[in-house]
Amino acid sequence: MGLQIDKDHQRFRKIVKGKIRKDLRKFLTRSELLGREGKKYISIPVQGIDTPHFRYGDNSDGGVGKGDGQPGDKVDGGDAGQGGTQEGQHILEVDVSLEELAEILGEELQLPRIEPKGKHRITSQRDKYSGIRQTGPESLRHFKRTFRRALRRQIMSGLYNPDAPRIIFERRDKMFRSWKTVLSPQSNAVIIYMMDVSGSMGDEQKELVRLEAFWIDAWLRKNYQGIESRYIVHDVRAGEVDRETFFRIREDGGTRISSAYRLAKDIIENNYAPSEWNIYLFHFSDGDNSSESDSRDCCSLLTEHLLPSVNMFGYCQVASAYGSGNFINVVHEHLNDEEAVITSRVNTKDDIYDSIKTFFAAGR
């Protein structure tokens, strides 16, 4: 019975994943998914799946809840008006782990697995069960080995009765699992998100940034055991903020993009040695910058300081009615030959799907 239930549950999860995969482009744009951001599971509304239920027998013996009744008798409860004629929409809330969502994302977008860069590996300690010993806590008692020792002892001492088998454990029979601490290699990564919060970046643009950053984070966490996220916002000045502030802050000043790149450079130099960390930079802006000279400074900062240390620099330009949109052209002109530089444009939520595929198609 239990095995059959497990099989049914696996089939149900497979159906759910198929539904999510079919509508993945739509799911990528659902802002309500972010309500449980940071938790292990996310509730996904999936349409067209019936929850498993018991099927009852024929209920044709009449009655309306108060004694005998005839077909067509009115059920007490007052007038409720005419019943609807349209078929109902079956929407089921299904809890899906972030790891499952990232797996579906990678499969549907055909994203290659990310290969850790160079020697960017550190080691962590973990306990590994590697042997058997005669002392230990009851929670680690090895039942099969303990039973075998007790059985052998009773047979050798002539206490075992095959017609009425009864095995009694003694202290000397008990065997326990043992462990040792081992060093486990672990790939670490840091993501530095940078966002333009000047006056030309409105709520709609920030929503596009938030959605894309969520899915970028989910995919990278699928590929790395240890990951850190840092957040930078900038107008003419840049500052590091926490996650919540990053997605909620709104300013109305001008724009100097180089201020964000300088702060990212300082954070990397002070905290993340390229020999130990896989480093990802993502910058979101509407492409409006204070001057052409500052745009050239940005390219110099990237070329001389940032790109030699990072796995990838992703620049995502979101559409804004108030921004010039020129910075992406500067990046293409001056950094077109840099392998670590990837750019994308997001004008609406529908573009997020293609933007993520653009960023990770190379599997950096």
CATH top level of the largest domain is Alpha Beta
Strand-residue proportion: 15-25%
- The SSE string, one letter per element, is HHEEHEHEHEEHHEHEHEH
**What oligomeric assembly is this protein in?**
single chain
Q: How would you describe what is shown here?
A:
There is one protein chain. The protein has 364 residues and is of the alpha/beta class. The protein folds into 3 domains: 1-49 and 90-108, no CATH class; 125-182, no CATH class; 187-360, von Willebrand factor, type A domain (Rossmann fold, 3-Layer(aba) Sandwich), CATH 3.40.50.410. 34% of the residues lie in helices and 23% in strands. The strands form 2 sheets. Strands 3, 4, 5, 6, 7, 8 and 9 form a 7-stranded mixed beta sheet that branches. A two-stranded antiparallel sheet has the order 1-2. The radius of gyration is 30 Å and the shape is elongated. The two termini are 46 Å apart. Residues 118-125 have low confidence and may be disordered.
Summed up:
The chain is of the alpha/beta class. The protein has 10 helices and 9 strands. The strands form 2 sheets. Strands 3, 4, 5, 6, 7, 8 and 9 form a 7-stranded mixed sheet that branches. It has a two-stranded antiparallel ribbon with strand order 1-2.
